[in-house]
Amino acid sequence: MSEDPWLPEPEDEAAGRVTAALEEIGRRAGSRSFEELSAQVRQLALGQRRLRRLLDAVVAMSADMDTRALLQHIVDVAADLVAARYGALGVLGDSGEFVDLITAGVDAERLKGESGLPQSHGLLGSLIADRRPLRVDDVASDPRSVGFPEGHPVMRTLLGVPLTVRGTVYGNLYLADKYDGTPFGDDDEALLTALASAAGVSIENARLYERLKRATEQFQRRMLPVLPDLAPLRIEARYEPASELPRLGGDWYDATPLPDGAVFVVVGDVTGHDVEAAPLMAQIRNMLRALAFDRCGPPSLVVDKLDRALSTYGDPTAATLVAARIEHEAGVGYTVRWTNAGHPPPLLVTADGTVHVLAPEQHGIPVGVDPALPRPDHSRPLPWASTLLLFTDGLIERRGQDIDAGLRQLAERAATLATAPLHALCDALITRRDAYDDDVALLALRVPSAPERRPRPQEGQPGS
Q: How many domains does the chain have?
């Protein structure tokens, strides 16, 4: 009994109390009406539990925006609601043929490998044609049945409903063989029909979500530059959007040769993930390129000019970045000069697999915060065949993990790829297999190998 008399009792407890009362009445009355009434109460309690589970399933489906995961969830929930041994969702193509199969209680990949996809004839074909629920108590004796292909479990009973999205049949949701051995009933059909109706809405939402995500990613990628040929330096870049939300991010990279022979590279991240972040990113990138080309000075000077320009904006605009000049001196080699505006530090990976984190004690704050604060420059020689990695924080940040741990893991992975082709290194460091909580931009620049030294001519030979 509930401790608080004003709170309703749980359904199972209330049903138990009613059943106990009915048993007492039955003992006194000595009639069969008790058994019938008790069975009805138990059935009502069971129906309430199933309805509650159906509502929970609908809520869960509405939150799932991955179409494949959603389809699997629909099949699992359907089989659980009706206590069926087997469940399947056959997805239909434009021509009405099955193009995919998601199952519960049977290995879908093995089944497709041995029997192929379901055929749009027989019992399943009638379900497609009629667009009405289908209930069969004995599959083998039904005149529409064409039997089961080799390797397919033999099923005795069947319950199927069409799954429609915007008036078009998206697929068939069907169950087979209840665990208790009874045929499917009216309640089972009503539950599955209700689930299919809610599933159609969820599928449409998931498809719209994925369409928006693709469009957002394409828009973002088109705003990023095509990298120039910087030979003998080699350069590669990657961009990967956040895994969960279709957000317009502010991550970017850029590289451009300068009039004085140096190369200017930058990776940055505009604060925020909304419709304004991407256009601001493009404006900042273009301003930086113009300032770097015009000034041809140390990166701190270029970023300082950017900071002052951003201060003229009506709304505050903040961004983190690393801006660097790659300089070459004949007979000496390459040097990187950089300034860091509140951004994750670059990594320098030498050919022998040693990784240096370029994080001097003195660094700057993000741009757009306080243009009066000075910005320090730093410099370091770039050994022959070494690789410089610049990236945004999405590459090293994970929920529940310290960012320093992410930086160490990235350094360890980069060390094993020190001599790998640059495109392979980038592909290994940023892949679609990883789940990213934020957008990721990565820029990798590799210095050429040491030039071959010509042997000095012997005395008396030409050129001596």
A: 3
